[in-house]
Specification:
OB fold (Dihydrolipoamide Acetyltransferase, E2P), 4 helices, 3 domains, 4-stranded antiparallel β-sheet, alpha+beta, 36% helix, 174 residues, 17% strand
Length: 174
């Protein structure tokens, strides 16, 4: 078995270039949870019509087996009776799912969601004013007054003393 990383398509199938699609109605419950995510798909290179095996890839917590058997998608010829029966059954299944999950009154549902968002915004605490910290940007050569020798780093104190000594010597010389 050879393993490939593939992205699960929006309909729960996995596409392989030059081979075709893997996945059907029986596997959609498992694969639709991973739409847009990478999975590890194992196929037999000598028998591309054989089912594939799918393992988790992106989810570190679930690096185990996702599907033991992922059948290859069957394309049927135009007018094939078996293909037509499967298509009609799939259409009925999709219509039933849509009817089951359809929202009866979308305008009312939107208004409820909008009201919930407005209430959540009203109950949220206001952001607090950020605290501004004044950084000490003085250097040993700055003209800003110092609070005293206790503020100076030992190196700064040494540099300051050298500077004052050199300035006094320069004034005395000339």
């Amino acid at each position: 078995m050879k393993w490939y990383r593939r992205t699960v398509m929006g309909d729960g199938r996995v596409r392989f270039p030059k081979i075709g699609l893997f996945g059907d109605i029986s596997t959609q419950d498992a694969t639709l949870k991973h739409v847009g995510k990478k999975v590890l798909v194992g196929i037999d290179p000598s028998a591309f019509n054989a089912p594939a095996t799918v393992r988790h890839w992106e989810d570190e917590a679930q690096r185990g087996l996702l599907l033991e058997r992922l059948p290859i998608y069957e394309a049927t010829r135009h007018g094939d009776a078996a293909g037509l029966r499967r298509a009609v059954a799939e259409e009925r299944r999709v219509k039933n799912l849509v009817a089951k999950h359809k929202v009866a009154d979308t305008n009312r549902r939107v208004a409820e969601l909008r009201q919930a968002v407005m209430e959540a915004e009203a109950s949220a605490p206001l952001p607090t004013k950020p605290t501004v910290v004044a950084l000490d940007t003085r250097n040993p050569f700055s003209d800003k007054p110092l609070d005293g020798p206790k503020d100076l780093h030992p190196l700064q104190a040494k540099l300051r003393a050298n500077l004052e000594r050199n300035l006094a010597a320069a004034k005395a010389a000339g």
